Recover the amino acids of this structure.
């Protein structure tokens, strides 16, 4: 499929239906804790056939300023949910959502969890494992150690599942 074929299908879509999806899915992401503008940008990228849009395209679609797009994209890039690409021969950037964005986002969380585990371990040592606060920290540490192991195992199962489902 060429970009023109994908663009043709996108032109045939009901823009109001696309907007309802983008805003509805963004609202779900906001309810789950994501900031509003990054959620809207992420949903708009997911809904585009090529999975890429420029700042101007995002601004026009979402009816927001370039500054709002810039801040939202910066947040999403930090979370490994989108990447920036330079258009060949241009200074313009395109923002891309990848098919494995959820995998990347969870893998990034794994790094954060490891840092939390180190801090919690230090807290248990500092407060004393036999104190109420130390026990609370030890239980929190055990939870994150459990989650860390489960994420690693789940990501491996996902890779196998994805290869079968989307060869």
């Amino acid at each position: 499929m060429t970009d023109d074929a994908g663009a043709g299908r996108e032109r045939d879509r009901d823009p109001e239906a696309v907007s309802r999806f983008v805003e509805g899915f963004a609202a779900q992401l906001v309810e789950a804790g994501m900031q509003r503008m990054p959620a809207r940008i992420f949903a708009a990228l997911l809904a585009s056939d090529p999975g890429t849009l420029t700042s101007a395209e995002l601004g026009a679609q979402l009816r927001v300023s370039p500054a709002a797009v810039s801040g939202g994209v910066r947040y999403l890039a930090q979370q490994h949910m989108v990447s920036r690409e330079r258009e060949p021969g241009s200074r313009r950037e395109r923002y891309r959502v990848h098919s494995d964005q959820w995998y990347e986002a969870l893998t990034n969380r794994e790094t954060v969890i490891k840092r939390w585990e180190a801090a919690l371990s230090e807290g248990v040592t500092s407060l004393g494992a036999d104190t109420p606060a130390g026990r609370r920290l030890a239980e929190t540490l055990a939870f994150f150690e459990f989650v860390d192991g489960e994420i690693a195992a789940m990501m491996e199962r996902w890779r196998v599942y994805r290869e079968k489902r989307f060869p």
Residues 1-7 have pLDDT under 50 and may be disordered.
